[in-house]
Amino acid sequence: MKVISGYARPGRRGAWTVGAAAAVAATAVAGARAVDADSGWCRTLDKPAWQPPSWAFGVVWTPLYATIAWSAGRALSRARGRERTALAAGLAVNLGLNAAWNHLFFGRRSPRAGLLGTVALDLSNAQLVRQVARTDRPAAAALAPYTAWCLFATALNGSLVRRNRGRRRGPSR
After folding, report:
1. 3-class DSSP state of 26
2. Which of 44, 105, 134, 171 is most buried when burial is the number of CB atoms within 10 A of its CB?
3. What are the phi and psi torsion angles at 102 (to 5°)?
4. Whole-number Å distance between alpha carbons of 69 and 161
């Protein structure tokens, strides 16, 4: 049966979504391995009053990761050739930066390194949204909460840098 719309057949669409979900799940696991919000170092950081409690981050990230997987799977299934290759590369960079932030902030015990990482992630988010929008506008729109949350995280991370200026990194564990 010929596909009139030019989009991937439904079975292929599911394969791209499963692949995107696997990549996003690997990102979540890789990033979570570095998180230690209960460490002495983290507990002693001077935090702004508007920082959410540590449990809120898991509650927020779970649906955000699901949305990233859905959006990426949908866009990848609709893209073709070089466009698909570029989109997959953009997603890979974005997910790498996403996981890297945890290692920069918690692993290195460095709000400053974390801030550099989250600014890089924000730039990658803007590029990813542009790439996805070329293929599928609803999938790009679905990335808005992820982009907004990362911008919030950048503001929070910037506040932590300012509030803890001159503070030395804590012990590695």
Report:
1. helix
2. 105
3. -60, -40
4. 31
**Cα angle at 98 between 124 and 39, to 5 degrees?**
145
Query: Is the pLDDT reported for residue 168 higher than 70?
Result: no
pLDDT, tens only, 64-76: 999 999 999 999 9
Nearest to 167 by CA among 115, 105, 111: 111
Distance separating alpha carbons of residues 40 and 173, to the nearest angstrom: 9
CB proximity list for 140: less than 8 A, separation 6 or greater: 71, 75, 129, 130, 132, 133
Give the pLDDT of residue 136.
Answer: 96
Q: What is the pLDDT of residue 2?
A: 41
Mean pLDDT value of segment 117-122: 98
Closest CA to 147 of 168, 125, 169: 125
Distance from chain centroid for Cα 59: 14
Res 30 pLDDT > 90:
yes
Helices (H) and strands (E) in the chain, counts: 7, 0
